[in-house]
Amino acid sequence: MALEGEYLGMPVVIDDLDKPNQEFYSHCGQGALHLQFCASCSLMRYPTTTACPWCASAEYQWQPVSGKGTVYSYAEVHHAIQPVFRQFLPYMILLVELDEQPGVPGEHDGLRVTGNLTLADGTMAPKDVVSAVGIGSRVRVVLKDLGGGLALPQWTLDEDAEQPETPWRYAND
């Protein structure tokens, strides 16, 4: 049976054939970020897959992670394709490297999860927060409830972490 929720008035449907993503978003809906942990090579992975990208094993368990990490890269969106996002311009999509499993299995690899930059309550971050975040900023996960037992991982500045004085940002034209 498909899982259904809603994000910013848009329907979110995870088909019943997509068991790994149903499990992932259901864990988020229970209030904790869990990632797939390979039973064969002991590496975690994201996004969810039916087989480990490192060893091809289909066997995995779900393992909780801290939900804390560092902005590895980002996109600052100034032109919203979906009309509902126009009210939040500019907004930021983050690629966050989690504190777990850094540099594994190789020095340029890491456990990275995407999501929007939000405030601690899960609402999209305003322009002043967007302009203060960049590569190196410390963030923590916020699980935005979508209803139907689902939640979406988003990111907010980690108020308990030491932040870089000047996070690296792309040059503005």
Order of helices and strands, N to C? EEHEEEEEEHEE
Task: Name the overall outline.
Answer: globular
Major sheet strand order: 8-7-6-9-10
CATH architecture: Beta Barrel
Count all strands and give the number.
10
Tally of contiguous helical segments: 2
Oligomeric form:
single chain
- CATH class (first level) name: Mainly Beta
Number of structural domains = 1
Q: Would you write up a description of this structure?
A:
- This protein has two helices and ten strands; from the N terminus they run E-E-H-E-E-E-E-E-E-H-E-E.
- The chain is mainly β.
- It has a single domain (3-157), classed as OB fold (Dihydrolipoamide Acetyltransferase, E2P), CATH 2.40.50.840.
- It has a five-stranded antiparallel sheet with strand order 8-7-6-9-10. A three-stranded antiparallel sheet has the order 4-3-5, covered by helices on one side.
- The longest helix is centred in the first third of the chain and has 11 residues, at 19-29.
- The mean pLDDT is 96.
